[in-house]
Amino acid sequence: MTVSIGSRVIGGGRPAYVIAEIGLNHNGDVDVAKRLIDVAADAGADAVKFQKRTPEIATPEHMRDMPRETPWGTMSYLDYRRRVEFDREKYIEISDHAMLRGLEWFASPWDEPSVDFLEDLGVHAHKVASASITDIGLLRALRDTGKTIILSTGMSTIDQIDAAIEVVGTDHLLLMHATSTYPMEPEEANLKMIPVLRDRYPGVPVGYSGHERGLQISVAAVALGAVAVERHITLDRTMWGSDHAASLEPTGLAHLVRDIRIIEQALGDGVKRVYPGELAPMAKLRRVPA
């Protein structure tokens, strides 16, 4: 039950793989993207993730002409999508910075040309956003890369997850339990789906992609066996943009990684033993020896 991304093996009892999703929280600014990469590296995350679209393909037709209020003025939703996309030169700059900080980077391609774009840049994995789980053409293009596929399962039924896995296969698959509410309320987390997915798809490692406020649910996911945790990050939750409110600020991400590592230590191996620290209390308190 393992997959590899770059030099890291995920699953099989190894430490949880922490993905800091930058997504579109860079607001189209490479300097902001680099600062967020630094946030992820400083917190001890393993990877950063972006989103890549060909706006003319990935923007739903009924949304294209909708007016959008942005920091750059009112524009159509399609023009907004164009405004926040990074070109190849900017992605190379981002890639170099992530590499210098010791982080893997990859993205969620939202259309088939974006898969080719990312492949040209040499990514080691691809993420399928929950919204794309029914896009069979995209899934086939990702399968054909032979790279690890991280498949999020928000806004999806079990039948839709089954159909997606039928396309991409299970050899290089990391499945992520998710609920696509931004921000997500605790009653929608349904963390018991983590063992359900693990049992339904034997041999497929299962992680958690969260959009909640706070840290508790993500930490609980690790306690339930999630082998990877993905959370959106931001410099400031009050920044303009749709995902900032459901994101972790720098201190929050650092605390999340810290708490995940503590929980991993605390889980132990399930073998009952008497620890050295118990010997003195035993000598003091146990009246009847074994």
Q: Your description of this structure?
A:
The strands form 3 sheets. This protein has an 8-stranded parallel beta sheet. A two-stranded antiparallel sheet has the order 1-2. The model has no long low-confidence stretch (mean pLDDT 96). The protein has helices spanning 30-43, 55-58, 77-83, 88-100, 112-120, 136-145, 158-168, 193-200, 216-223, 250-267, 276-285, and strands at residues 2-5, 8-11, 17-23, 47-52, 67-70, 73-76, 104-109, 125-128, 148-152, 173-178, 206-210, 228-232. With 290 residues, the chain is α/β, with parallel strands linked by helices. The chain has one domain: Alpha-Beta Barrel (TIM Barrel), CATH 3.20.20.70. The longest helix is centred in the last third of the chain and has 18 residues, at 250-267. Helices cover 39% and strands 21% of the residues.
Helices and strands in order:
Layout: E1 2-5, E2 8-11, E3 17-23, H1 30-43, E4 47-52, H2 55-58, E5 67-70, E6 73-76, H3 77-83, H4 88-100, E7 104-109, H5 112-120, E8 125-128, H6 136-145, E9 148-152, H7 158-168, E10 173-178, H8 193-200, E11 206-210, H9 216-223, E12 228-232, H10 250-267, H11 276-285
Parallel strand pairs: 3-4, 3-12, 4-7, 8-9, 9-10, 10-11, 11-12
Antiparallel strand pairs: 1-2, 5-6
Kindly summarize this structure in a few lines:
By secondary structure, the chain is of the alpha/beta class. The chain is 39% helix and 21% strand.
